[in-house]
Amino acid sequence: MEYVTTWFYDVLSFFGLYYKDAKVLFLGLDGAGKTTLLKVLKNGKVDKMAEPTTHAGKEELVYGSLKIEAHDLGGHAGVRRGWKEFFFDVDGVIFIVDSVDRDRFPEAKAALDGLLGSERLASVPFLVLGNKIDVPSSAGDAELRAGIGLMETTGTDPEATKSTGVRPIELFLVSITKKTNIKPAFDWLSAYLKRQVPGASHF
């Protein structure tokens, strides 16, 4: 029965008749690629001149079957202290790591650990993106997992894990500027987000 329901919603999504609404926080250290990802998702373009985010911003965009209320909260140390003010009614978290900047892996780990330890985000799916894999010196999967302390995740097959009650968290290696592996990552996140009734109002 669940397979039939999923197939039905997939067909509606294909024709643009059904979306999932989601409030998603875009988090990570400064320079990881949060704002660039938002631009790519919204208009398919890469803004190479994008300035560092100094204050929280909100974008509303459609990507695949998702209608996302995206909150880019910035990543500087001073800004990160205010992240918790946005931890209400969150449907998903995207945490982006610069996979080239090994010196900041411990800092990224500390920020991620703080998020995972928040009671308000205890049941929220976490999509972790290791960005900049187009750069030859970028860390591979095993090195990045060790660097940010993410050795155990729930796997890339949502159907096999949705009923376990474990908080969904998975790492995908991506290149935001090249749009590499973005779709599989968001397909994974979408599978854990709440379904909306076709025709329901959005935003």
UniProtKB/TrEMBL annotation:
Q: Does the keyword Transcription regulation apply?
A: no
Q: Name one GO biological process term.
A: intracellular protein transport
Membrane-related topology note: Peripheral membrane protein
Kindly state which keywords UniProt assigns to this record, in alphabetical order.
Endoplasmic reticulum, ER-Golgi transport, Golgi apparatus, GTP-binding, Hydrolase, Magnesium, Membrane, Metal-binding, Nucleotide-binding, Protein transport, Transport
Q: Which Gene3D superfamilies match?
A: P-loop containing nucleotide triphosphate hydrolases
InterPro entries attached here?
A: P-loop_NTPase, Small_GTP-bd, Small_GTPase_ARF/SAR, Small_GTPase_SAR1
State a GO cellular component annotated for this protein.
Answer: Golgi membrane
What residues does Mg(2+) bind to?
A: D30, T35, T53
What's the protein here called? Uncharacterized protein
Organism, per UniProt? Cafeteria roenbergensis (Marine flagellate)
